[in-house]
């Protein structure tokens, strides 16, 4: 059966650790693996604008000996005349893998069900699993381990980043806290899935409304934009409702003294995070951004090896 990476719990705890270890090795020796030599082509499809995802996948595919084929759905049949499954059946005859940055998770699921090459979720409305691999890699570099660490996400708990933190953090054996107001809580099913994983890994998941209580003693503090793509018209309401969850130096003071600050970027400075935090000594956002390259390369190497068996 073809292995895909559509959400964070598509890999087991042992598999997640294996991918992260491979990412560490590839960061030390960037051109050590060439599974796409030929060169083979990887289709990288964008429904949404992108900086880090586009660059990291294009560079990573080239590093692995392949050729990235960047496709905009605005200039293709996908999402118009053709279904995801039909597109996948065409692409699988020409490419080694498919990467898709899109809106609905259902389209990714349909595409994966219709193809024999691995499909990678480069972002959907529900999850951002490639970003989480990069984030876990960055934390591992800074702390040497993941299990037992407490990570707090503040802001829109229903966003893709919060939901991926629940699943990926639980898989890594972390204690994941989500702090958000009513109406911005994660999916009940995602929380239940993460709790079930945490019960096996020794981690935990918890939901908070009080940002200070959530951050207290945390090893890692994370936030994300309050206004995701497609929700620009909601900005005024979101700023009013999420303002108490802004990460500033006063809030960071409640975390562990050596707590790390993370943000997947782009950041709306002055809204979800202040400049003094994002540019401060606890911030590791630039390492986090670079690690998209190394984590995604490791993921592609791992998936291609799994599907070659």
UniProtKB/TrEMBL annotation:
Binding-site residues for L-ornithine, renumbered to this chain: 160, 224, 228-229
Protein name per the record: Ornithine carbamoyltransferase
GO biological process, one term: citrulline biosynthetic process
Main location: cytoplasm
Positions in coiled-coil regions: none
Record-listed E.C. numbers: 2.1.3.3
Compartment(s): Cytoplasm
């Amino acid at each position: 059966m073809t292995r895909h990476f559509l959400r964070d719990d598509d890999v087991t705890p042992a598999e997640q650790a294996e991918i992260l270890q491979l990412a560490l090795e590839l960061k030390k020796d960037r051109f050590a693996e060439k599974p796409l030599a030929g060169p083979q082509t990887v289709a990288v499809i964008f429904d949404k604008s992108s900086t880090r995802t586009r660059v990291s996948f294009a560079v990573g595919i080239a590093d692995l000996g392949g050729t990235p084929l960047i496709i905009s759905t605005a200039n293709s049949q996908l999402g118009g005349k053709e279904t995801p499954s039909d597109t996948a059946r065409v692409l699988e005859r020409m490419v080694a893998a498919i990467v898709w940055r899109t809106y609905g998770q259902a389209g990714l699921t349909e595409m994966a069900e219709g193809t024999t090459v691995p499909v990678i979720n480069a972002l959907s409305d529900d999850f951002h699993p490639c970003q989480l691999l990069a984030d876990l890699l960055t934390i591992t570099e800074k702390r040497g381990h993941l299990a037992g660490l407490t990570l707090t996400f503040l802001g829109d708990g229903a966003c893709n980043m919060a939901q991926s933190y629940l699943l990926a953090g639980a898989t890594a054996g972390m204690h994941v806290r989500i702090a958000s107001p009513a109406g911005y809580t994660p999916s009940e099913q995602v929380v239940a899935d993460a709790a079930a994983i945490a019960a096996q890994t020794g981690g935990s998941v918890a939901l908070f409304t009080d940002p200070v209580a959530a951050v207290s003693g945390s090893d890692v503090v994370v936030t994300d934009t309050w206004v995701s793509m497609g929700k620009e018209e909601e900005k005024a309401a979101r700023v009013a409702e999420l303002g108490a969850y802004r990460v500033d130096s006063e809030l960071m003071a409640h975390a562990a003294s050596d707590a790390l600050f993370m943000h997947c970027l782009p950041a709306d400075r002055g809204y979800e995070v202040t400049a003094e935090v994002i540019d401060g000594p606890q911030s590791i956002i630039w390492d986090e951004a670079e690690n998209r390259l190394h984590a995604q390369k490791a993921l592609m190497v791992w998936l291609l090896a799994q599907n070659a068996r």
